[in-house]
Specification:
CATH architecture of one domain in chain B: 2-Layer Sandwich
Distance between the termini of chain B: 62 Å
Helix content of chain B: 25-40%
Number of helices of chain B: 21
Number of domains of chain A: 4
Bound molecules: adenosine-5'-triphosphate, magnesium ion
CATH class of one domain in chain B: Alpha Beta
Number of strands of chain B: 25
CATH superfamily of one domain in chain B: Histidine kinase-like ATPase, C-terminal domain
Distance between the termini of chain A: 71 Å
Number of strands of chain A: 30
Number of helices of chain A: 10
Shape of chain B: elongated
Radius of gyration of chain B: 32 Å
CATH superfamily of the largest domain in chain A: DNA Polymerase III, subunit A, domain 2
Largest interface: A-B, 71 and 58 residues
Radius of gyration of chain A: 26 Å
Largest sheet of chain A: 12 strands, antiparallel
CATH architecture of the largest domain in chain A: Roll
Strand order of the largest sheet of chain B: 7-6-5-8-3-2-9-10
CATH class of the largest domain in chain A: Alpha Beta
Largest sheet of chain B: 8 strands, mixed
Structural class of chain B: alpha+beta
Oligomer: heterodimer
Helix content of chain A: 25-40%
Chain lengths: 482, 615
Amino acid sequence: MKFSISAEKFFNAVNKLSYVVPGSSHTTLPILSNIYFKLDSNKLRMVSTDLEAFITTDLNVEGTEDGGVAVPARKLLELLKAMIIKNESVSVTEKYSSDSYGLLNAEGLVPELNLYSIKYDNAKGTLVYRGSIPEETFEGLKEEFRLFKENKGTIAAEDLKTALDDLEKAVTALGKSAVDTFKKTTEKLKIKFESNDKNKITVNSKNGKYQFFGEPLDDYPLPQDKTELSRIEISGNRFKRFIQKVKHSVKNDEIRRNMAGVFIDLRKNELRFVATDGFRLSKIITSEFSHTNSKDENFILPIKTVDLIPKIVTDSSLVMEFDNMMIKFTIDNFNVYSKLIDDTFPNYESVIPKDNDKKLLVNRYDLLSALRRASIFTDKVTMKVKFEVIGGELTIKSDNPEIGGEGEETINCDFKTNSGDEISDAFSIAFNVSYLVECLSQIDTDEVIFTFSAPAKASILLPVASMNEENFMELIMPVRVG
Amino acid sequence: MDNKIKILPQNLYNKIAAGEVVGRPEAVVKELIENSIDAGANEITVLIKDAGKVLIQVIDNGSGMSEEDAIVAFQRHSTSKISTYEDLENIQTLGFRGEALASIAAIAQVELKTKTVSDDVGTVVKIEGNEVIEVSKDSLETGTSIAVKNIFYNTPGRRNFLKSNQTEFRHIYDTFIRQAVSNPNIAFKFFNNEELIFNLRKTVLSERLKELFGEEFANTLIPITVEHSVVKLNGLVSKPGFTKKSKQDQFFYLNKRFFTNKSLNFAVYSGYDDLIEKGDYPSFFLFIEIDPKKVDVNVHPSKLEVKFEDESAMFGFVRKAIKETLRASNITFDIGFSNTMSFENTPDNLEHKKPDVNFTPKGFNSGFNSGFSNSPSTPGTSSIHSIFEASRRDDLDSGNDNASGIPLNSEEGIQKNIFEHKKDEDEKFNLWQYQNKYIMCETATGLMIIDQHAAHERVLYEKALLRLNSQSAFSQQLLLPIKVKLTKIDYQLAKGLQEEIHNLGFALKFINEEVVEITGIPADVKPGKEEKILQELIDQYKEYEISLNLEKRDNLAKSFSCRSAIKAGERLQHQEMFNLIDSLFASQMPYVCPHGRPTVIRLTTEELDKRFSRS
Ligand SMILES: Nc1ncnc2c1ncn2[C@@H]1O[C@H](COP(=O)(O)OP(=O)(O)OP(=O)(O)O)[C@@H](O)[C@H]1O
Ligand SMILES: [Mg+2]
């Protein structure tokens, strides 16, 4: 087998396929630590699997000699990283006003950009990035900004707010150009790949030549393609966002298998993603999708696959084809095959209360930052915080009898009945603070709505407005006190 | 020279518990040493030959006796220690019966040499079978020497009853130890067949124990001192975790008199409470000082038994004293490199000293935010930093290089590196999990090894007890109630414990004779355990009820903590380990689990250095 391919494309494929390759100590089938390579003229078919999920892809290459070999995945990945990343770092800049930077800096409002290899050049008024894995770096930065903003709470001063938003924009632009530049350099770099009939592999590039041994393809397991599958098409980004929004509620244990994944519930004109661990529930609904079958269908996507797909998803659309046993995802030229959880998801609709008659409206940033502070004084095991609402004030109380600390913080809120009447009676309810924070973090709007009925009954969290034709809600079970 | 010894009137000696004084050579040793102590000696030499069968000699530098006293001393009921009935109620000395020397003289050949300070020459008295054979004068040092030869020479029946030398020696040895323990201010020499076995300097109790039992053992003890208006208790007791499988080395003294009392021993055990495993016993050296009027030592001729005016008050006092001392002290378990530990970490008294921050991260807990790994520096973190000062890794800067080129092991590696860089403020504390079972934690002065299950059990146990007693349970409500089918017996048991189970944090609905619906679980049950926790709790409860015979609440708390604690084999996140250690050191008794097994073992750098022969 002989072919050549751009380093960027090759690395990207090997990288994605490696996600399911089991660690050598975790598999009883040693062949699985390899990636299946089969060349048929200009089409290279690659497959990897841990037997629970398969990833396959067809790459266009310049083939010169057909053949096949199973290539040690880790070794190849390390090698490509070393060849590409080590040698091809990029340096990009982006303008950002030094006045704004100074302003933010003085207020301690600059996120830790240096951790992401970004420096600010005061003299030139530019942000500078120098590094070699821009994609991951800037993904991380997105998260960094999100958390940073949540931690700081509402920034009242308009100029600071704008300066921070602008900084985020500038960093995003910087990231985009870093990724583009990096792509260009690695696209240009050609990798020549060869294997002989003794399964000896040679990888060649301008940065060096490496040889190692692969395995024969013989008993490499391959996924079975089925016909008669139902089909859903949805934007890749939307899918990724949906997963992100509900994933934290997935049950993380072996006992209740029916909750150990995201429930994808297809109704006539609605696609719902639901997850619950019995303590909280997250549900997001969209009508922006297409499907072949008009009947209601559903399946539980195991958490492993839930974690995997977003790593493979791109901006383009994503196709899910499934029956009641398995699902096949198509994302660009990648296919992912996964088993489904063969169990019944709890009847989530019946447990979502419809009679929550009290409505609390509160600034999400203020609440989050208050909760983070309050959590300093929560009991580390029960993680309990107490809400006390009276009039227009929400008091968040935490205490830790063990160390004798306690915290109390009051923020403004709006507390009304469903019909809009002020509630003058005091209401209190307690929650596990980490559940609260996880749920609040997934709400996109600046303000959040809680609905309650009673202190020991489910509480619902909602964004104040729905975005992108999506309907998001979360439910949290409180902690009964006394 | 004044004579001090008087013969007790009959009405008084009739009140004294009478009986056999000398049953075996050991009794002679005991009586003679006691006499020397009563005579105010501060140097005592004991010599024995053939396990005391041939010779027992005790030499002291005490008050000595006048010639007349030296003769009278061997008569029955002759004593200088009491003279009235009031004296008998207020005994300050070890002897009081005026029986010992007479009993000894009756069964052996005795030679007494004695001189008082005021006499210029001393007296020698020889007695055989109660007959004074010879009285003479000699130049002697101040003090008394009594040699007892050929014990039971005139009662061959009893002589034949003596056990092997080994056994008789063992008894003498034990007696000697008892006296040596209670009188560290007296120098003792002990010769067996002319071999010097002990040569004990005048010192304090803790040092005396080292000389008698070895330094390693002595280091497993913690001192105790508790004072009450009428009674004082001091001494040393085993650190939990250094208890033994036998009831060895248990010493109780009342006003310096050794005594045995099962009920008080039990008071000590129960003071250890959950700090010892069943079947383990602590060693102790405990001295009770109490007004002699409040006790009766005149119970048995052997004087080994005492009677307290208020036995149950005494029980309560001892139990409480032990309990409080153990809880106030910092009992970490050192890895058993011998002779390296000192008492420095243990409190000298009951003043509630916090454990040494240098080693046990008590301050760990000073309010570090545990909920969110990505929160910025929060107040309180600084103190944790200082505890871990020595263990910080400066990886922030070096880690930065990774982003600019060096390939990492795996894709996750890269991701992780970037995401978690500063997320984990506490990542800098060197904390790692060993075999999914132990948490290794670097501290300023060494390494702490924590048993994750035992540690978590301790934390949950105390919380559970607190809740059971305060009736303020937190119950995480469940979105999807869990129906559990119990056997009829378990159902009844659960129903009987309904209130306690509620206080523990469960919300239960009893449906019919077999089915219970769980709508809420204790907030500290690890997610994933809610399905089984009730059944496990009941099973464990039943088991403990039989095996440990625990009181209801204690049993529930123990069962709950045992079943819902992290198990060995569970992988823990860094944050979880951090929280666990944090909570552990915030608990009342961090160093042992509710069953008395250690939770923490430490290894100091000093010890390691020693092992590697570094200086
Ligand atoms: N080593 C000694 N030095 C000085 N006086 C002694 C010594 N041994 C005995 N005596 C004197 O002899 C007396 C009698 O001793 P003995 O041991 O027979 O009786 P006791 O000590 O008074 O009472 P008990 O029978 O309870 O021991 C003592 O009261 C004491 O005055
Ligand atoms: Mg005596």
